[in-house]
Amino acid sequence: MRRVAVTGVGMTLFGKQPERSLEELGREAILAALHDAGLEQDRIGAAYCGNALGGGAVGQRVLADLDIGGLPVVNVEAACASGSVALHEGWLRVAAGMHDVVLVFGVEKLSDRFDGVITLDRGHESETRLGLTMPASYAFIAQRHMAEHGTTREQLALVSVKNHKHGVLNPKAQYRTEFSVEEVLTSRMIADPLTLYQCCANSDGAAAVLLVAEDLIHDSATRPVWIRGTGLASGTSLRRVRDMSYSEIAARAARAAYEQADISPEDVCVAEVHDAFTIGEMVACEALGFCERGRSGALVETGETELGGRIPVNPSGGLLSKGHPVGATGVAQIVELAHQLRGEAGRRQVEGARIGVAHTLGGGVAALDGVACAVTVLGV
Amino acid sequence: MRRVAVTGVGMTLFGKQPERSLEELGREAILAALHDAGLEQDRIGAAYCGNALGGGAVGQRVLADLDIGGLPVVNVEAACASGSVALHEGWLRVAAGMHDVVLVFGVEKLSDRFDGVITLDRGHESETRLGLTMPASYAFIAQRHMAEHGTTREQLALVSVKNHKHGVLNPKAQYRTEFSVEEVLTSRMIADPLTLYQCCANSDGAAAVLLVAEDLIHDSATRPVWIRGTGLASGTSLRRVRDMSYSEIAARAARAAYEQADISPEDVCVAEVHDAFTIGEMVACEALGFCERGRSGALVETGETELGGRIPVNPSGGLLSKGHPVGATGVAQIVELAHQLRGEAGRRQVEGARIGVAHTLGGGVAALDGVACAVTVLGV
Questions:
Q1: Number of separate domains in chain B
Q2: Are both B195 and B264 inside the same structural domain?
Q3: In CATH, what number is assigned to the domain containing residue A319?
Q4: Between chains, do A75 and B76 touch, taking CB under 8 Å as contact?
Q5: Which of B67, B89, B363 comes nearest A237 by C-beta?
Q6: Are B195 and B87 part of one and the same domain?
Q7: Predicted complex: ipTM over 0.90
Q8: Looking at the structure, do residues B271 and B371 belong to the same domain, yes or no?
Q9: Average confidence (pLDDT) over A86-115
Q10: Residue pairs spanning A and B at CB distance below 8 A
Q11: Residues of chain A with C-beta less than 8 angstroms from the C-beta of B365
Q12: Which burial class, exposed, middle or buried, applies to A303 when counting CB atoms under 10 A from its CB (0-12, 13-18, 19+)?
């Protein structure tokens, strides 16, 4: 299989943009990525689109609107991991030699569609019937983590404090406001122990990256960022889950990605992980090996995951501050890591970052221990 | 890239089955395919699921229900071509050497969800606002075909007559009733010239196939059916469409698949094509090269596409008679062709069939000339 580089990245603002269409959001991100890569759009051989809730043929609709028509377009859905799974499939297509240049983009528009409850299962709606919405699913994990490992409410809040602090430095972020631990803890209770400022918002936005085969990377000016490893895992039946406070699915995806990249957790310089809720970042950090199992409370408390710390996590502001337009999220993580690894992240730059890891998790625990997890290792 | 074989196929009955869940339908098709292949489920390395309208994480939900958990699962959406695009992606994964055994399945449940109108665009609903529903889109094509090529209403009706005649021979088909040309023409008008019996129904059902790398095909008893070519194309903007009576998108997908398979249209022994509406089969036959452009009316009239004819089309009954559970349709075509190429199609067997072609088209003409087209060439 060929090595695959990310040579161009782009994204829109994340936030409430009810007046903009999916097509308009997608167009802006794709044109930005093409411009960044210095590629004309007729070089694109195939495209992958990550989207969860936008209806049918979203990728084709966006590309036809851009007058990039005719080529193979594959729409990929994996709940909150949709964009990351699209990236995995795009990588496979280039690595396998099917196409030399593949566009991967994610787009979502949530602000004008929902009353606040997003479920996976349109048929049975077991999640809403049982009350097992996303915040409730994550609250179960948080409660178990507190019971098993002595994790405190303050430690959970610190994840939000840190990510909002990072988000202030990101001009694309939805919420650019710092909060104190006190403010996070006293914001409205959503699902105990998760308060409002510990839950990401529904956002509108798009992100895009261009993947190029190593054979075409001649010009050092293109500053390639290599996809060194990419792992996917899916959820198992809940009855197989032994420890609700640990993300087995993320550990499986990480193992696959690290093996392919031939790295260990100690090699990671910067990470973007799925902090849809504060506890989500904590269990991701454990599964990715940034600390021992059960020790993610101490990890955030000691500042190790803050900018300037040992392993900065979510320098972009993460889902909590940057926002979470579902299908775009996984692709936007790659946009952030590409900027970090190229040394272009400005005031939120992780100095000397050479290896970055992205992690997304789709789905809650209504029927599964998460439905899909993707871990990607990038390197320069 | 490695050669990839279909070694096991399975499907449910197609039809109105409102009492059965997506999970139950998927399970039946997958277990049938595993049984047919003589494989245990722990041999599956990854899975692809084609689904258009079932909500989030459909593939993961079906597999967790089967207790096949943990592995990479990718959900693919391409409107009516969803199952075919899932097959393409599954083929790529095996061909590239990522996994040796990949499950591809499609599942859909429509009977209890819709009031009869299915649209792609949940945001703008431009299709329904303009009246450009699927039957209307195809009616435009039919009108243009009649105007350009002198195609008659009787020729259109003959497609339905033929496919229902075939469907009587298929125990999995939704409608197993023969109709006369007169009956088809006098059934209720849906979108002139398309009458009710020229439109497929909304169905529930699932289909599954197992793809295996050539390295693992030791035993001649597995009767491998090889994927010789697979082409995808997407729609271009309507303003680029020069002739509404011709399916450019299908011609592009067919060209890619035929080139990869190194065949010409004359080599094809049997075909399953996307007859969501009678005119759909006609324009597909032209684009696939079974007759000259504009001559598909004569093709059906002379009996060449009937069982026993020169190039039997839709021996399964097609979407018109077998039914159209959207995500399952493209996979079910492969099920039918595998039976045909193995010589196991019983009373609807195409004698001596060695090469089969499957064609699906997703989407109407509201914004595009179709949104996605997939053509697959199978051979023994």
A1: 2
A2: yes
A3: 3.40.47.10
A4: yes
A5: B67
A6: no
A7: yes
A8: yes
A9: 92
A10: 198
A11: none
A12: middle
Count the Cβ atoms, other than its own, within 10 Å of residue A344: 12
Separation between Cα atoms, residue B152 and residue B280, nearest integer Å: 15
Asked if A234's CB is within 8 angstroms of B73's CB, the reply is yes
**pLDDT digits over A319-333, tens only?**
999 999 999 999 999
Main-chain dihedrals φ then ψ at residue A126, nearest 5 degrees: -65, -30
Q: What is the largest CA-CA distance in chain A?
A: 56
| Inter-residue contact A309 to A28 (CB < 8 Å) | no
Do the chains contact at B121 and A55, CB–CB below 8 Å? yes
Question: What is the predicted pLDDT for the residue at A246?
Answer: 92
d(CA B163, CA B272): 11
Least confident stretch, A58-62, A149-153, A228-232, A342-346: A58-62
Q: CB atoms < 10 A from the CB of B218, how many?
A: 7
Distance from the A64 Cα atom to the nearest Cα atom in chain B, whole angstroms: 5
Cross-chain residue pair A75–B73, CB shorter than 8 Å? no
Alpha carbons B6 and B306: distance in angstroms, whole number: 26
Structural domain span for residue A223 = 4-114+203-227
For the CA atoms of B247, B250, B255, B257, the dihedral, rounded to the nearest 10 degrees, stands at: -170
Task: State pLDDT tens for residues A124-179.
Answer: 456 666 777 888 889 999 999 999 999 999 999 999 999 999 999 999 999 999 99
Residues of chain B with pLDDT under 50: 123-124
A294-313: per-residue pLDDT in tens? 999 999 999 999 999 999 99
Residue carrying structure tokens 């496919």: B163
Q: What is the mean pLDDT of chain A?
A: 92
Residue B306 and residue B172 in one domain: yes
Chain A CB contacts of B54 below 8 Å: 122-123
The whole-number pLDDT of residue B113 equals 66
Output phi, psi for A107, to 5 deg.
Answer: -150, 145
- Could you tell me the pTM of the whole model? 0.95
**Annotation says A166 is catalytic:** no
Mean pLDDT score, A63-69: 85
CA distance B368 to chain A (A): 7
Q: Quick one: B96 and B140 in the same domain? A: no
